[in-house]
Specification:
Elements: H1 3-8, H2 14-23, E1 26-28, H3 29-44, E2 49-53, E3 56-61, H4 77-85, H5 95-103
Parallel strand pairs: 1-2
Antiparallel strand pairs: 2-3
Length: 106
Amino acid sequence: MNRDTCERHSVLTPLVMCVILLDMKTATIREVQHNLSALLRRVEVGDEIEIRRRTHPVARIVSIRTRKPKKAEWSGVGARLKRMYGRRIVPGTSLEDIVSEGRGSF
């Protein structure tokens, strides 16, 4: 049973509601009115919920908690690289390119 099938049902059974809630990244105003606590639990763990009036987005529910990114531990990297490679130049991709690729484009 998928969400499209569920939305065609005139009566929302508990099974249909579970499928909708498990699959939901968007919610109608009616779904928000009836399932606000379940939606807020999803938002608390990091999901964003887009609220729609029919097919038009009207609002978005997001968590107000911002997670602090973990800082990488770089304390022994320089010494370890020096032990491994000494003064020779290592062929391959530059560290700058690797870091840029890992961060992605914003």
